[in-house]
């Protein structure tokens, strides 16, 4: 099997990370892969925030916890109470992708960029996991203040985020693929 297909088939979401930080050149390669994603009319409408500062990671975690605790959603409240709470699994690098709201397809552009970054990380032996929490968190008052503090420009909407780091353990086995999701018309 060719290397690219093998990389796609063997990537898994990783939920346990070493605390050792990634090398700058590895992060740069991941970011370059993200920025080479296709985008509607080549607008490259993404804005990518890389967080590696322990202080900022703690701040993001604290804001997520506070938002989860008052979400009114039972399972989020339960998660928020956990002593070891971290929606990004204590990964040392957290990447947030936003998209220019007025672009043609910011959600699609940004998702492809993030997808490329997950695959690029895997090709370098680095674990990753898409983290949905920020989409909800950024819609709250606390989250909007955090978005500002992170330097995300006005007019950019949340697309997705992902944890990145060296794996602390084995990759899980892939879930079986659903049947009947493809229809080929010849
Ligand atoms: C849009 C999206 C949101 C996701 N959000 C989360 C999340 O918040 N937390 C998490 O642990 N995994 C999250 N995941 C990862 C999925 O759970 C994972 O991709 C799926 O279970 C398949 O496993 P695999 O990535 O190992 O193939 C998300 C994935 C996508 C595409």
From TrEMBL:
One of its GO terms (molecular function) is oxidoreductase activity. Transmembrane segments: none annotated. Keywords: Flavoprotein, FMN, Oxidoreductase. InterPro entries: Nitroreductase, Nitroreductase-like. SUPFAM superfamilies: FMN-dependent nitroreductase-like. This is Nitroreductase. Residues 8-166 form the Nitroreductase domain. Gene3D superfamilies: NADH Oxidase. PANTHER family: NAD(P)H NITROREDUCTASE YDGI-RELATED, NITROREDUCTASE. Belongs to the nitroreductase family. It comes from Formimonas warabiya. Its cofactor is FMN. CDD domains: PnbA_NfnB-like (cd02136).
